[in-house]
Specification:
By secondary structure, the chain is α+β, with helices and mostly antiparallel strands. Helices cover 41% and strands 19% of the residues. The longest helix is centred in the C-terminal third of the chain and has 14 residues, at 174-187. 27% of the residues are buried.
């Protein structure tokens, strides 16, 4: 079981890091508050130390190891409480925690269902379940001083460039990839991330 990891950031997106530790590189899923605080928590050698939650994502035919990273143990402890809520798995929790954990804990403590519904993937019923399960257990988390700076969604060239890079890695020719990206953006003008763009491309290939 991997409980912590230290290394240099090779690449990062909003919710993932690739960390080089020795001869190995690890993909680590991280909440937005962690992503935004990577730079300020690097040591003098440019390395970051993350506390991790290590689990296996199960499918009918395989079990894939997954790492979720945090700046400190308190963040991990909140995450472990959060995924106790029915219907919230680790990957969904990483995406949902796109605001400061201290703020989310305070919202749970005061039963602020409307605030909780602003978290990605959290609807009205799930917000009520979060309050029912966790209210009264948030004391130590409400004092956390983590932060999340609101940033505009990336659009246009940034998303397209990221999608093109991934398609190139998948051995698609440049002209073919450009055509797929352009058609996907025409079909769905609400795309706000490279992941959504690639999903749109994949769904089109199934038709």
């Amino acid at each position: 079981m991997i409980t912590a990891i230290k290394g240099k950031v090779i690449s990062q997106t909003q919710n993932t890091l690739v960390l080089g530790a020795g001869a190995l590189s690890y993909e680590i899923f991280v909440p937005l508050s962690v992503t935004q605080r990577i730079a300020e928590n690097k040591d003098s050698n440019g390395e970051i130390h993350l506390i991790t939650y290590h689990y296996y994502q199960m499918t009918p035919s395989s079990a894939s190891p997954v790492l979720v990273g945090f700046i400190n143990e308190l963040e991990r402890d909140f995450f472990l409480e959060f995924i106790k809520v029915s219907g919230i798995g680790p990957r969904a929790a990483v995406k949902a925690l796109n605001k400061a954990i201290g703020e989310i804990a305070q919202a749970i403590d005061r039963a602020d269902v409307k605030y909780l519904q602003t978290l990605p993937g959290i609807g009205a019923q799930r917000a009520k379940e979060i309050v029912a399960k966790l209210q009264g257990k948030m004391g130590r988390f409400t004092l956390m001083r983590d932060k999340v700076v609101d940033t505009p969604q990336r659009t246009g060239p940034d998303i397209q460039d990221e999608a093109m890079t991934i398609l190139a890695q998948l051995q698609y020719k440049k002209a073919e990839a450009e055509d797929m990206v352009a058609k996907a953006l025409l079909r769905n003008r609400g795309i706000t991330s490279a992941e959504e763009l690639l999903s749109e491309i994949y769904n089109a290939t199934k038709k």
